[in-house]
Amino acid sequence: MTDLMEAVTSLAKRRGFAFPSSEIYGGLRSSWDYGPLGVELRNNIRRAWWRSMVQLRDDVVGLEAAILMSPRVWEASGHVAGFSDPLVECLNCHQRFRQDQLPGPACPNCGQKEFTEPRQFNLMFKTHMGPVEEDAAAVYLRPETAQAMFVDFRTIQQASRMKVPFGIAQIGKAFRNEITPSNFVFRTREFELMEVEYFVEPGADEQWFEYWKEERLRWFLSLGVRPEKLRLRAHASDELAHYAKAAADIEYEFPFGWSELEGIANRTDFDLRRHQEASGEDLTYFDQEGDRRYLPFVVEPALGVDRAFLTFLLDAYRVGEAKSAKGEMEKRTVLALHRDLAPIKVAVLPLSRNEALVPEARRVHDVVKARWMSAYDDAGAIGRRYRRQDEVGTPFCVTVDFETLTDGQVTVRERDAMTQDRISIDRLAAYLQERLAA
Ligand code: ATP
After folding, report:
1. Structural domains in the chain?
2. Minimum CA distance residue for ligand 1 atom 30
3. What is the Å distance from ligand 1's center to 21 Cα?
4. Which residue among 5, 187, 247, 359 is least packed, with the fewest CB closer than 10 Å?
5. Ligand 1: distance of its center to the CA of 11 in Å?
6. What tens digit of pLDDT does each residue of 320-370 get?
7. Which residues line ligand 1 (CB under 6 A)?
8. What average pLDDT is seen over the chain?
9. CB–CB of 100/118 below 8 Å?
10. Neighbouring residues of 174: CB distance < 8 A, sequence distance ≥ 6
11. SS3 63
12. Whole-prediction pTM
């Protein structure tokens, strides 16, 4: 099964989805760069999430807050005191590990069984603001985007005139000084979060917690993730984060085992209460109908873009066989990505570089690129060009051949069924629209 991880990591690098950062200097462990196709896939993931969580709902509004916030935020939120993982060091080889992630009693590096006592290691990156390097100027890179939704709660509620229950959504970078980053982009020190803080009346929190678990599971299914690879797992009480009353993970069966893909937490009124106390500002919500004030409870679905990216790639990776032009069976790698996620929606392929075909193919490409992310490829045998598009998940290939010049039609090949339809260029946009529209 680790073969799958290797195959996907290697495809990701070879085709420009993602590769190690600063590689010419040997890389920086746990930092990854997203190349041309990776950027498209990430944009599509963010867009699908935003569409489902904000645009298609009446009860969620957006926010894009600064990464650097007042250090008082992280004191009040409990992150300075409590956002830590238990760190142990092997007494023999001095490698460091996160105690709760050790696979067994022995050191994964040298096999010895003696470790230091665990010490709490704070995961926040600390830096200095302005030209003075003293503690008074210390700021943190945010380890979650959620805190901005809490400290901006009143301003946003008033500006948007939203009534509880409602949510605030944000997508943005977060930083955690993870002890053991691992598994490609599964766990990194810089990553991107997509979070909603959903504010509800106290007492309605448990019901909304149930709602969000189902709703988030549905989102992955709607984007084609195989149901047998997904499950919900409730946190045991000793696993809960310092702010949570209940939490559940949507887990995916990764090649390295079932692991958290997305977390859903019932954060109660913990954060608003702490910020109200620490800032001295009134953060209560006035419920006009009930004629009363209260601090809302919060349910939070939180998903990493990078972890979703890895999941979609792994889940879509298929290896099969197909007949080559010479009639031989060949290996065929396909990324069966949902059309909304596919980095390139349509590729235009002239049968050859013939000088009559190229201008016609360019005209067809102009029609396509006006609407969709597309590619134009005229290099090499047509069969090989199909394979190249299959491997990156392009749903449709449009071939321009010599008959096109007389009948004004092109061949549209669909990735999964490999069906081929002959379509007139006049109808091409409508044909694709019908099949690509969300
Ligand atoms: P863990 O206990 O595994 O370190 P966590 O439970 O603290 O993680 P959450 O705070 O629930 O993680 O994070 C919410 C989501 O953010 C995760 O489900 C995951 O999708 C993403 N995420 C968290 N940490 C990382 C990371 N280091 N790299 C990539 N994605 C991450």
Report:
1. 34-72+135-313 (3.30.930.10), 344-436 (3.40.50.800)
2. 304
3. 20
4. 359
5. 24
6. 988 877 788 889 999 999 999 999 999 999 999 999 999 999 999 999 999
7. 176, 178, 187-188, 191, 193, 260-263, 302-304, 306-307
8. 95
9. no
10. 141, 142, 143, 144, 145, 190, 191, 192, 193
11. coil
12. 0.95
